Backbone:
């Protein structure tokens, strides 16, 4: 039934959207092969920046920073998605209760507070309380501000799922946990995936808050490269970005291929 | 279960990733893109001390971070001249004695006893430079020897000027242009400064400190306030710019490495500062950042390009001024002017 | 007949009512301790006296709010009047964020719809495609965008080369560039929630409407939109609220010639002005505004059975 799903112009807008998203990246990728150091003048084709990323003097720093970024993003996204799912269940399916508006405000608090304020406030708070800043403080801060990004897609999804299905399951003697796990969770999956992706990219990209609450000597990718980007992206940074892009594209292709195989054998 | 295992390994990895440290560590808080990594590695090779460098992008954000709670995590930082004075006043600095450093005698006599740190008890000179402006010679060929290029630009440059996004330097240069003192409390003078800036702003394309070099190289701006080191780098990247030393005056600044209060590795910090007072090491930084070193004897180690670059050789008789840190009431007036400019 | 189409049974039935406490506890604990407390501290700071060049002194005063709302002339000695400076900065940011949200909605909704109507196993791939660019640091992408939008940049080169323009259009350092930058920064935040809602949509409703001779667009307006509204609202919140406090794209692409809320607050904490109580006060005012709107929405949504 192509009819009701199809809207003229929507595909064109999607293509436009992807174009807008990718053109700056293509520019970065192209210039990562630029032999000259300047971003604005082309000096010929060269792989030297890729070599520099792996063997240059700053290579170990970037490697450690990239690792920190990825692990923090993974853990923070997972934890915050789990917390957000629980919260969404309570808010959407928990009936009316006092303090509901307040809870909604609290969930969205990380969104509302300007980043610099969160950064300074958290640092002051951590120091006052006596928490030594380091990996864990970054992680905690990330989990905190990822929650609303995970919550909103999940709750939007959940409000579109009628309760009849779980009710039917329970009528058939399924335990609440089974009803959740086998009925609701699969229905909720796209929302959870959306929330997870949002939380992941938010955490991966965060600079200001991380910069303030990290311990001395601890780097994530944004903090490690920000100096090399502010005055005009250094070419080795462009190489790193292109590589990250390449890795993620590879990952997506892989998951697509695996998914297709999985379907085929069913 | 598998996820739990994965999680734990991931959590443990940063802890495991830290290597066993032989001679201890050093935590440096530094401007970005200033010190070449090779120099830091040289220090580590000589002493066995593992160095980590965290970066900041302005004196003020460094101060903010230290005041918010980062004091006690770093051993040394690199504030500018007026910031050293501010930090001294706020008790953020540690002290050392000249005897602790073998190379202390290398310090250039001109930078030894400075108003912001008399007797050099808390800091050593690092690099110094100037802030004025550069003009693209392809666009404008006239005399550029005056701050009027920025504040009352000729027609060819109108709408193509980039100004630093930094209150201290813009207001200082503006004051010099009008011939009024910095940290003035005279109402007429301040009103004149305010009006002059507001009249000049429509001719400015943008405010930006980090893009100062980029806009000149790419041609987005035909003139711009800029640090002398950036200007050298812009020329090296092919921009046909000339750095000006305006007759009304220009800003001179000196960055200094300071010992921070409650430094966790104080002895290593002193060793690092001593290391940087060696001419060849100071020259390495100069070659990288295109500024001027604060120690003597660097000439033989400098790249020719730096030695002869016009940005590093001001014409005789030109006066450069430090940016002054004003007291609280006066600062409030300048804050108001800046907010008025950017509102 | 314009009206909301509601599903047969409600999606909120209180079935998780008893589990409410343990479900909400992690949220309350994490955000409550690690954010609400620090932010409360900041709110308290807004009532303290500023320490010169950053920090606070523990003397209570309304000076920060006075600075926001009242002006006494450039030198502080004229009679008190309403200070419009900061209110206009707020208004400017609200306007920019609003335009960016509208742009995101305009392009994000069709994109989300398109993805949601692809074959099921390809949908995650499309989602990844949308989010992959965000693996690359925002600063890098914004600098790259700046490079593209320049007068002599690839965009103008392309438009002139294709014959669409005679002269380069100057987008950089204008409001348009700022809105483009904001749109660019927050696009997936609009797409993903809408996708999650549209994917759930039962196309039987559209088919029924088609059987009743409703046009495609009327179906969209009167049948689809009311049902996927939670996703749209979620997307708008996720774009609008952070955009209010953004300053990276505005400064880099707009030329930083005027303060926005984000850069104004940043200046108080990390700039020469070093006025933490004032920065805190601006944040408190901002958060109060947003909270009022959000809580109003939550209350209205609760009446309709959604949150």
Residues:
């Amino acid at each position: 039934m192509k009819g009701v799903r199809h809207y003229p112009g929507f595909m064109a807008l999607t293509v436009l959207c992807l174009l807008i998203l990718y053109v700056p990246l293509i520019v970065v990728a192209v210039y990562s092969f630029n032999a000259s150091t300047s971003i604005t003048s082309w000096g010929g084709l060269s792989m030297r920046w890729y070599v520099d990323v792996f063997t240059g003097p700053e290579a170990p720093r970037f490697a450690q920073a990239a690792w920190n970024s990825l692990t923090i993003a993974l853990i923070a996204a997972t934890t915050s998605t789990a917390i957000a799912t629980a919260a969404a269940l309570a808010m959407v399916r928990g009936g009316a209760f006092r303090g509901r508006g307040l809870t909604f405000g609290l969930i969205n608090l990380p969104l509302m507070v300007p980043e610099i304020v969160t950064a300074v406030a958290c640092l002051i708070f951590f120091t006052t309380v006596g928490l030594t800043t380091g990996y864990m403080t970054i992680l905690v801060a990330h989990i905190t501000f990822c929650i609303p990004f995970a919550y909103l897609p999940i709750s939007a999804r959940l409000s579109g799922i009628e309760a009849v299905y779980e009710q039917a399951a329970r009528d058939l003697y399924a335990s609440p946990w089974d009803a959740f796990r086998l009925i609701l969770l699969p229905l909720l999956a796209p929302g959870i995936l959306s929330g997870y992706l949002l939380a992941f990219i938010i955490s991966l990209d965060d600079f200001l808050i991380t910069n303030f609450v990290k311990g001395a000597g601890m780097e994530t990718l944004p903090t490690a490269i920000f100096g090399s980007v502010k005055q005009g992206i250094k070419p080795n940074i462009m190489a790193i970005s292109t590589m990250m892009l390449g890795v993620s594209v590879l990952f997506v292709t892989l998951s697509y291929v695996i998914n297709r195989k999985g379907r085929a054998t069913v | 279960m598998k996820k739990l295992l994965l999680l734990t390994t991931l959590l443990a990895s940063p802890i495991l990733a830290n290597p066993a440290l032989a001679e201890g560590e050093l935590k440096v808080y530094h401007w970005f893109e200033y010190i070449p990594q090779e120099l830091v590695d040289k220090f580590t090779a000589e002493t066995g001390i593992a160095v980590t460098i965290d970066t900041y992008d302005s004196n003020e954000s460094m101060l903010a971070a230290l005041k918010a709670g980062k004091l006690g995590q770093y051993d040394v930082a690199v504030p500018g001249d007026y910031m050293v004075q501010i930090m001294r006043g706020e008790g953020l600095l540690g002290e050392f004695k000249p005897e602790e450093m073998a190379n202390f005698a290398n310090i250039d006599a001109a930078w030894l006893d400075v108003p912001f740190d008399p007797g050099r008890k808390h800091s050593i000179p690092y690099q110094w430079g100037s802030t004025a402006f550069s003009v693209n010679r392809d666009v404008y060929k006239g005399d550029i020897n005056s701050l009027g290029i920025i504040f009352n630009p000729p027609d060819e440059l109108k709408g193509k000027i980039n100004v630093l996004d930094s209150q201290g330097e813009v207001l200082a240069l503006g004051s010099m242009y009008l011939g009024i003192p910095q940290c003035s409390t005279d109402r007429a003078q301040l009103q004149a400064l305010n009006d002059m800036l507001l009249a000049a702003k429509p001719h400015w394309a943008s405010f930006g400190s980090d893009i100062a070099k980029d806009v000149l190289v790419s041609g987005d701006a035909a003139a711009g306030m800029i640090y002398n080191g950036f200007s050298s780098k812009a020329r090296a990247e092919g921009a046909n710019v000339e750095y000006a030393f305006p007759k009304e005056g220009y800003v001179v600044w000196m960055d200094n490495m300071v010992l921070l209060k409650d430094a966790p590795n104080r002895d290593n910090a002193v060793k690092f500062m001593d290391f940087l007072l060696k001419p060849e090491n100071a020259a390495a930084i100069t070659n990288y950042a295109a500024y001027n070193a604060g120690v003597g004897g660097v000439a033989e180690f400098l790249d020719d390009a730096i030695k002869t670059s016009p940005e590093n050789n001001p014409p005789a008789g030109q006066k450069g001024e430090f940016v002054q840190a004003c007291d609280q009431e006066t600062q409030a007036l300048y804050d108001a002017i800046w907010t008025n400019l950017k509102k | 007949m314009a009206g909301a189409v509601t599903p047969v049974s409600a999606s909120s039935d209180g079935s998780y009512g008893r589990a409410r406490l343990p479900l909400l506890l992690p949220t309350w604990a994490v955000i409550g301790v690690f954010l609400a407390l620090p932010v409360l501290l900041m709110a308290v700071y807004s009532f303290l006296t500023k320490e010169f060049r950053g920090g606070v002194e523990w003397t209570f005063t309304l000076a920060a709010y006075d600075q926001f709302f009242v002006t006494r002339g450039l030198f502080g000695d004229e009679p008190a009047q309403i200070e419009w400076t900061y209110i206009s900065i707020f208004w400017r940011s609200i306007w920019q964020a609003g335009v960016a949200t509208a742009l995101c909605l305009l392009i994000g909704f069709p994109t989300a719809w398109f993805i949601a109507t692809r074959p099921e196993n390809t949908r995650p791939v499309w989602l990844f495609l949308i989010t992959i660019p965000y693996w690359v640091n925002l600063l890098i992408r914004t600098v790259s965008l700046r490079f593209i939008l320049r007068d002599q940049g690839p965009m103008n080169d392309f438009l002139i080369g294709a014959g669409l323009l005679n002269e380069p259009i100057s987008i950089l350092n204008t409001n348009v560039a700022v809105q483009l930058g904001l749109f660019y920064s927050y696009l997936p935040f609009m797409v993903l929630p809408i996708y999650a809602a549209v994917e759930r949509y039962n196309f039987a409703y559209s088919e029924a409407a088609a059987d009743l001779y409703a046009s495609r667009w009327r179906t969209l307006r009167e049948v689809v939109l009311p049902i996927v509204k939670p996703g749209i609202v979620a997307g708008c919140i996720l774009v609008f609220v952070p955009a209010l406090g953004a300053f990276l794209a505005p400064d880099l692409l707009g030329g930083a010639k005027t303060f926005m809320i984000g850069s104004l607050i940043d200046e108080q904490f990390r700039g020469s002005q070093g006025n933490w109580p004032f920065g805190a006060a601006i944040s408190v005012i901002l958060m109060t505004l947003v909270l009022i709107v959000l809580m109003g929405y939550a209350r209205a949504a609760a009446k309709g059975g959604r949150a």
